[in-house]
Amino acid sequence: MRTESSRGVRRTLYISALALANAIFIGFIAKGLLYLINFFTHLFFFGEVSIHEVSPADNNLGYWVIAIPALGGVIVGIMARFGSKAIRGHGIPEAMEKVITNESKIHPVITILKPLSAAISIGTGGPFGAEGPIISTGGALGSFCGQTLNITAQERKVLLAAGATSGMTAIFGTPFAAILLAIELLLFEFSPRSFIPVMVACITGACMHFILFGTTATFPMPHVGTVSSQAVIFYASLGILIGLISVAVTRILYLIEDAFEKLPVHWMWWPAIGGLVVGAIGVFAPQTLGVGYENITAALSGQLSISILVALCFWKFVSWSIALGSGTSGGTLAPLLTIGSSIGCLLGMVGQSWFPEAGISLPLAALVGMSALFAGSARALLTSIVFALESTQQENSLLPLLAGCVTAYMVSFILMRGTIMTEKIKRRGVIAPEHYVPDILEIKKAGEYAMSMHNPDVKLLRPEMTVRELRAWLQKEGPHYPYNTLFVTNANESFVNGSIDRKTFFDGDPDPDAFISSIMSRRVYSVYDDNSLQLVVEFLLKTGQDVLPVIDRSSRQLTGFISHFNVLKSFEERFRHDREQSRHISVMSATLRAISRSKSVFRR
Question: What is the second-level CATH architecture of the domain 2-427?
């Protein structure tokens, strides 16, 4: 096992080094993206050149503000039409699709066009956050790095996930949440070879955040003290309501997207149409324009009026859903956080009036609403909880967050098959994995499924056998022999000397009286009995052999053979076990129902 393990360790360290280097570069891209958003905001809303932070809500343009998001939509539509259509949307579904269907290959042009189009979209008032574009950009950079180097598709997937999550960390300073996001939405697995490079990238991204953005909480809020049991029950109930809202949010978003698909105009103009709606809403609800991170902080303070909270949760949703449904470039996380925190704060007010003795906190209700909406919409349960903890630095909020996010997740799971992240690719026929189970090829060993030395399906040749004898055997038994590779062993069959390819044996014209040892290939690939089935599959694919000798590691002697049919048996065993378990559960359920009915009859 040492050779296999040491190779895996070396590759993991190599990919981790690449992920670290990419994360440093992505940190600067994240800072540049925010500068670019500020630049376009100053330019379009205030007619000045500056990169200092500013909110489009402070503009004095009156009704002229309607034209600015529409102009941004025109520019983004043109960039998508003549640059790359992949810049449309919020980034994470597109990254998931590339991971599942395209060996994690993203076109390098996305690294430039995605942040630029997002900066124009948000800078002209688009109600999005910067996190979606930077996740997409980081993923594209990781994928590009993987495409230029001699690495596997699995390693390229890891680099894509590491780049995407380091970008998220660079924006929010939430490394652990980003690691969980990679596991829940991008990697679809939990193994050291994947999450070690991602952890390295996220830690590096956090360091870049501290250097470029500071060390304070991304979303500061009043201190959260100990929480009563009555309050926890309220936050769990709040999560149920937020879960229902998350289902509605997701379905309405895709209904709007479907409506745009039916428009009799080219999709290039859809972002401009969406921009008109964004601008119109921005006239009477200017706080819905732009990134709006300050709105999240304000909601978490618990000091906003009911009218502003209603505007943030309703009009922000209308503006964001129509803009995103139009196919412009932007993110989902910041709008979901804004809408969720506003709804949570409103419901917290209701809870305070109905249950004054429960000690319900408005800031904490806003925090639970913020994370629960993300948990229900994206079905990223662990990410949503840890993100709220890291971005606010309020460790006492863990129990309320668990209560609210778990109930929202459960409601979403029961009522909705897809998520806001997977519905788009699901409509294209791409199914995202939902279950994380151990890879059976990694945990099963070759020796467990190897055929015996004396298996009749395997023909062993002696070196003293002549070409004439082999030719006669092939003409008689060859059509029924299941494998293309024939192995030549020593006299006592303790090890393999060489192999003969049945398909090419008849191509040459060897001397019929020559021994087959003179024409056999001495390069034979084999596996040890304690090697994983994953290595067996890798060797079968790379070598072209359809069967491999299995060697005992301690004695170095031949113990058997393994083919792709034997590998499939490992899956057959698992499927049979699952079916038996399902039947057992069904029988037990039927028995319990029968007992319950008999008790009812007896009582009557």
Answer: Orthogonal Bundle (1.10)
